[in-house]
Design goal:
single chain; mainly alpha; 2 domains; 142 residues; 6 helices
Length: 142
């Protein structure tokens, strides 16, 4: 997303993907007070779907930077994957996809030991780890 005004179309496409591919609905949408998240058009779409719209409180350390912390967690996990097997940075995109898959399948103490997939009631999706196996094999042989 290069511009904030693109958010509504991207969210609508994502919403349709979730409905058709996973036969699920988005139950809750958490966000900050960004204008793209509080527009009337977007709020009406959430209300139409019955999605709970949670807006984080300003000036509260507990809620400030929730998205930033999650983003940092993903980036640090991807960086660790690349550095631990001495993989060049041109494989960054695959490492990020793998990191997100791992994060989504590993259980968490915040959700009573369930993974995000288990917590949402989705079937377990095997992460795309063949990429790292091939890279590790390739770089170990070099």
């Amino acid at each position: 997303m290069k511009h904030h005004f693109e958010f509504f179309e991207i969210y609508a496409a994502f919403r349709a993907l979730i409905k058709t591919q996973h036969s699920a609905v988005i139950k809750c949408f958490s966000c900050d007070l960004g204008g793209e998240y509080t527009s009337n058009k977007f709020c009406q779409l959430l209300a139409l779907d019955g999605t709970i719209h949670q807006i984080s409180c300003t000036d509260t350390p507990e809620q400030n930077g929730v998205a930033e912390r999650k983003h940092r967690h993903i980036i640090e996990t991807a960086r660790s994957l690349l550095l631990s097997v001495f993989v060049p940075s041109e494989f960054w995109e695959e490492a990020v996809f793998t990191a997100v898959s791992l994060i989504n399948t590993i259980s968490s103490s915040h959700s009573s030991g369930l993974s995000p997939f288990d917590y949402m009631g989705m079937s377990m999706i095997i992460p795309h780890l063949e990429f790292l196996v091939v890279l590790v094999s390739f770089f170990v042989l070099m």
